Amino acid sequence: MGQLAQVLCWSVILKLKAPVTPFQISFCCANTDPEPWLAGLHAALPQAQVSVWQPGAVAADIAVVWQPLQQFFDEQPQLKAIFNIGAGVDALLKLRLPPQAVVVRLEDAGMAVQMAEYVCQAVIRHFRDLNAYADDVRAGHWTYYKPRQRSDLPVGVMGLGVLGARVAQALAHFEFPVNGWSRTPRALDSVRSFSGAAQLDDFLVSSRVLVNLLPLTPDTTNILNRDHLSRLQPGGYLINVARGAHLVDDDLLALIRSGHLSGALLDVFRTEPLPVNHPFWREPKITITPHTSARTLREDSIAQIVGKIDALQRGQAVTGVVSVARGY
Ligand code: NDP
Ligand code: OXD
User: Fold this and answer.
1) Which of 155, 202, 239, 244 is positioned for an S-S bond with 269, CB 3.0–4.6 A?
2) Tens of pLDDT along 122-135?
3) Protein residue closest via CA to atom 3 of ligand 2
4) How many domains does the chain have?
C-alpha cells in the first residue's frame, strides 16, 4: 500500500474509533525524561492513554520514539503511526518497523532557527577571524587582521530541506554568496541551486565553506570524503551539523594537515559522545560541540505531533511522512 493510502486508511480507522474508544500512545525515547512528555501529550489529547513503553506493555495505536529498541517494534506490530521526536530518522530506519505504520518526523518544530543561528555564527566567526582575535586578546595583544571579501567566501549548503533552506537563506541575509545542493532541484531566493549527483562537483568547486545538512541515507553515507572535500576552494572550512557517518574522519584530518582545509566545526560524530582518544579532540583547527546545534524543543514538538494526530483523525493527510524507501 502507498504511504498516502496508509495515512488515509489509518485516519479512517481512528476517525471511526476516536469518539468512543480512547487510543493508546506508547512513548519510547532514549535519553529523554518521559514525565513532561507524557504530561504534555495527555493534556493536549485527553482521550488518549499515554504511557512509557516497557516490555510486555499493552498494544498501542501510536508510538512516540527516539532511538527505540528493536524489541519495542517486535512487541508492537499493530502500530498505525510512529512519531520520531527528531528530524533525522536514520537510527529508526535501521530497525524492522511494522510495515503498515506511517513514520512521521519532526519538521522544524523550533530547530530551523537554532540551526540558522548556529551555522551563521560559525561562518561569521570564521569570516571575521574571531577565534584569532580571541586568542590574541587572551595573550594581551591588540592586533588587526586584514578584512576579507565576502565574495571570497562562497558557502555551500548540502541539503535544502526544512533546515538547509532556512540556513541558506539566513546566510544570504548576511550577503555571503550561497550555493545549495539537493537531490531534486530547489529554487530559493539568493541561493544558486545545484541538484543531483551530476551537479555535485560544480557545487563543491563553487564553495569555500561547506555546511552539511543532508539526511543520513545509503546515498549520503561517507559523502564528506577526501575526493569531495578536496574539491572545495583552497582554505575551505567544513561545518558538519547533520550526522557523523557523513564524514570520513581520517580524510578530514589529512586535508586539514595538508593545509587544503583551514579547519572544521563538528557537531555530530560517528560515535557519540566522541571517544576521549579520538584525534579530533587534539586537532586545534577542529572545533567540537556535543550534538547541540539544534535541540528538540519539547513544547514545540508536542504541539506539532498533537496537530498531526488531530489532522489524521480528521482524515487529513499530514506532512513530514518519511519515505522508508528513500531513507528520509
Ligand atoms: P529534510 O528531509 O527536510 O531535507 C533533506 C534535504 O537533503 C533535502 O533538500 C533533500 O533533497 C536533500 N537530500 C537528501 N538526499 C540527498 C541526496 N542523495 N543528494 C542530494 N540531496 C539530498 O531534512 P531536515 O532539513 O529536516 O534535516 C536534515 C538533517 O539534519 C536530519 O536528517 C538530521 O540528520 C540533521 N539534524 C541534525 C541536528 C543536530 O542537532 N545536529 C538536529 C536536527 C537535524 P530534496 O529537497 O530533493 O528532497
Ligand atoms: C535530529 C537531531 O535529527 O537532533 O533531530 O539530530
Assistant:
1) 244
2) 999 999 999 999 99
3) 88
4) 2
